[in-house]
């Protein structure tokens, strides 16, 4: 059974996310533990964590993935910004452990004026400094579109991050980011080539999550603009190949698609489920 879901809101509390997911027809989901555009946030309390853990065991909404906020840059050359970023990730690890959640998804960071090599190493060093807070969590590095100095857009960079971080890590592949960073997945053959290249360089066993988004931007455009499934430049053939791929079909898939006059979440999941052949 495919695990397909959405990013859902925690605005009405952590205990409500299962209902929010079910209403959309999802059987897994992704959340922020707090407002993603704010530095000031609280760690999840032990009481809320315990209530959540009980419910999580009973509900068939699995996995629930935590996405970190948009602000941290673990490779920042500004020491204050870097400390804030490290502290923010540390708090996310504590919250994930209290909630009993296994995966924390992060965007690797931007190297800005320093070299990419230095930036990648900075990310790993920042993460290694909070190793004691990781607990049972697996950190997922999400691939990026590679605009500006943003790191993590190539399989080689993802491999470097995995190899130089001293605790359990894995990879999230976002289909929009894959496509706009130059990896074609718009048909079965192109997808096979991209998956086999990922396997050779990073290892498929490290792939823990797929962000399923179509793309407004063209192949290799470095643009990070999501589109409804099948309505973007990846198109229906690409998504049909992904959801029916022998290996990928067993990886949880989370959509971060828009909600607008064209479609909402329900329409996207129906469209996707109708393409599943196996
Ligand atoms: Zn994503
Ligand atoms: Zn994106």
TrEMBL record:
One of its GO terms (biological process) is base-excision repair. It comes from the Archaea. Belongs to the AP endonuclease 2 family. One of its GO terms (molecular function) is phosphoric diester hydrolase activity. Residues 18-274 form the Xylose isomerase-like TIM barrel domain. Binds 3 Zn(2+) ions. SMART domains: AP2Ec. Endonuclease IV plays a role in DNA repair. It cleaves phosphodiester bonds at apurinic or apyrimidinic (AP) sites, generating a 3'-hydroxyl group and a 5'-terminal sugar phosphate. This is Probable endonuclease 4. Zn(2+) 1 binds at residues 67, 107, 142. Zn(2+) 2 binds at residues 142, 174, 211, 256. It comes from Candidatus Methanofastidiosum methylothiophilum. Its EC number is 3.1.21.2. It catalyses: Endonucleolytic cleavage to 5'-phosphooligonucleotide end-products. Zn(2+) 3 binds at residues 177, 224, 226. Its cofactor is Zn(2+). InterPro entries: AP_endonuc_2 (IPR001719), AP_endonuc_F2_Zn_BS (IPR018246), Xyl_isomerase-like_sf (IPR036237), Xyl_isomerase-like_TIM-brl (IPR013022). It holds the Pfam family AP_endonuc_2.
């Amino acid at each position: 059974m495919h695990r397909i879901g959405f990013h859902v809101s925690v605005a009405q509390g952590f205990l409500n996310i299962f209902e929010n997911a079910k209403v959309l027809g999802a059987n897994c989901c992704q959340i922020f533990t707090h407002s993603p555009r704010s530095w000031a946030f609280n760690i999840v309390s032990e009481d809320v964590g315990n209530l959540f853990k009980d419910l999580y065991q009973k509900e068939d909404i699995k996995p629930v993935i935590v996405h970190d906020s948009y602000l941290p840059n673990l490779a920042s050359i500004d020491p204050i910004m870097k400390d804030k970023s490290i502290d923010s990730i540390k708090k996310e690890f504590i919250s994930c452990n209290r909630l009993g959640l296994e995966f924390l998804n992060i965007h690797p960071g931007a190297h800005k004026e320093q070299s990419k090599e230095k930036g990648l190493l900075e990310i790993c060093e920042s993460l290694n400094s909070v190793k004691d807070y990781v607990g049972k969590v697996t950190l997922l590095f999400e691939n990026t579109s590679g605009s500006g100095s943003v790191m993590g857009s190539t399989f080689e960079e993802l491999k470097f991050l995995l190899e130089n971080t001293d605790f359990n890590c894995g990879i999230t592949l976002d289909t929009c980011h894959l496509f706009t960073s130059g990896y074609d997945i718009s048909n079965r053959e192109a997808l096979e080539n991209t998956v086999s290249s990922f396997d050779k360089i990073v290892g498929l066993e490290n792939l823990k999550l797929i962000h399923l988004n179509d793309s407004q931007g063209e192949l290799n455009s470095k643009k990070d603009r999501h589109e409804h499934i099948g309505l973007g430049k990846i198109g229906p053939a690409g998504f049909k190949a992904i959801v029916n791929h022998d290996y990928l079909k067993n990886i949880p898939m989370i959509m971060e698609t828009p909600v607008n006059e064209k479609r909402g979440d329900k329409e996207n999941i129906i469209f996707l489920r109708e393409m599943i052949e196996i």
